[in-house]
Amino acid sequence: MQTQAYLDLENQYGAHNYKPLDVVLTRGEGVWVWDVDGRKYLDCLAAYSAVNQGHCHPKIMAAMQAQARHLTLTSRAFRNDQLGPFYKEICELTRSHKVLPMNSGAEAVETVIKTVRKWGYQVKGIPADQAEIIVCANNFHGRTITIVGFSTDPTAHIGFGPFTPGFKVVPFGDADALEAAITPNTAGFLVEPIQGEAGVIIPPDGYLKAVRAICDRHNVVLILDEIQTGLGRTGRLLAEEHEAIEADLTLVGKALSGGFYPVSAVLSNNEVMDVLQPGEHGSTFGGNPLACAIARTAMRVLKEEKMIENASEMGDYFLAGLRQIQSPHIREVRGRGLMIAMELVPEAGGARQFCHRLAGKGMLCKETHENTIRFAPPLVITKADVAWALEQIDAVMRD
Ligand SMILES: *Cc1c(COP(=O)(O)O)cnc(C)c1O
């Protein structure tokens, strides 16, 4: 079958909740993917940072195949021999006390909301059903009803109400606004260290440090959603390290499996996680042996193969190269590690047409909102690949 036949099937039978580029992929290896017509592309999205380790990483694949032959699912009604080792390894890697495994990122966010509310009642002494969680404008935390209810993006929430109460929105990057919004009923503050879906929005220097101090001062749990920024993407294991802080609760997902399987986790200190009692939360697939075996290897190769250091070096090189490009279409280039965005001027006519032209040159990129192109390739990208990418971008932007 050729490209058009696949598009026709999707259009006829699928829900139209996505507007993908019309490229039908069939194979991937490292930073490269191939479509059904045999064309090769550099993947500059890496499945929204779920494929940080590169497509079809051989060691993760081997771990998946080996585990699939042994045992895939027990449910948490019984124990399995991958769960304990996974717990220990993820806690040691991220300097956490406790972990709660789930599947998708949105489930990790839902889990953290439940946990922080319970902590608010049980430990902080907030009156029943009064707990508030503060979130940021332009956040992206997933697609469940509760989560879209506190999204400020109209496309995400219009038509889907009524929503879960108990959330307050403050501007991102404004620590004073956070402090002003805190009341005695505030249990937690949920924030992305860098807002990914909003267009790689980097807060002012010192923001996370100030947020950490404010949360300490008011006994508010600081929750960092590192589902996109975590596991090496920004050139550090966790983006919180750029400001030398530690969150009370950290969410990871996406690259936790290197793209093989949905695996997410809530990482916590003892005080917060210990409020959960048997029966109060769970997931049939959460913590299954296949997920744990995959995640253990996905974490191991990040470290062993120095992908985090590479993200830092290649990110600097990529960003410096983009800043050299002279084009009237470019308003700003920004990024940290390999989480990079190029914002175009509104007169450029929208980022999507540039994504189409980049695809024509063998680069797959995705626009975020109208005018921003994101560059976030797998962390295994080489200098030669970045140099090649810069040539393609330069040609398209000068055109
Ligand atoms: C992708 C993402 C999520 C949601 O993850 P899913 O696995 O798609 O549910 C949550 N938060 C952030 C910051 C994300 O980038």
Automatic annotation (TrEMBL):
| GO BP terms, alphabetized | L-proline biosynthetic process
Provide the Gene Ontology terms for cellular component.
cytoplasm
- Membrane spanning stretches: none
- Which residues does the record list as N6-(pyridoxal phosphate)lysine (modified residue)? K254
Instruction: Say yes or no: keyword Amino-acid biosynthesis present.
Output: yes
GO function terms (MF aspect):
identical protein binding; ornithine aminotransferase activity; pyridoxal phosphate binding
EC main class here is: transferase
Which InterPro entries did the record assign? Aminotrans_3 (IPR005814), Aminotrans_3_PPA_site (IPR049704), Class-III_PLP-dep_AT (IPR050103), Orn_aminotrans (IPR010164), Ornith_aminotrans_bact (IPR034757), PyrdxlP-dep_Trfase (IPR015424), PyrdxlP-dep_Trfase_major (IPR015421), PyrdxlP-dep_Trfase_small (IPR015422)
Might you give the EC number(s) for this enzyme? 2.6.1.13
Q: Which SUPFAM superfamilies match?
A: PLP-dependent transferases
Catalysed reaction per UniProt?
a 2-oxocarboxylate + L-ornithine = L-glutamate 5-semialdehyde + an L-alpha-amino acid
Q: What is its main location?
A: cytoplasm
Which UniProt key words apply to this protein?
Amino-acid biosynthesis, Aminotransferase, Cytoplasm, Proline biosynthesis, Pyridoxal phosphate, Transferase
Q: Give the pathway listed in the UniProt entry for this protein.
A: Amino-acid biosynthesis; L-proline biosynthesis; L-glutamate 5-semialdehyde from L-ornithine: step 1/1
Cofactor(s) the record lists: pyridoxal 5'-phosphate
Q: Which PANTHER family match?
A: AMINOTRANSFERASE CLASS III, ORNITHINE AMINOTRANSFERASE, MITOCHONDRIAL
Q: What does this protein do?
A: Catalyzes the interconversion of ornithine to glutamate semialdehyde.
What family is this?
A: Belongs to the class-III pyridoxal-phosphate-dependent aminotransferase family. OAT subfamily.
Task: Indicate what this protein is called per its UniProt record.
Answer: Ornithine aminotransferase
Record organism: Desulfosarcina ovata subsp. ovata
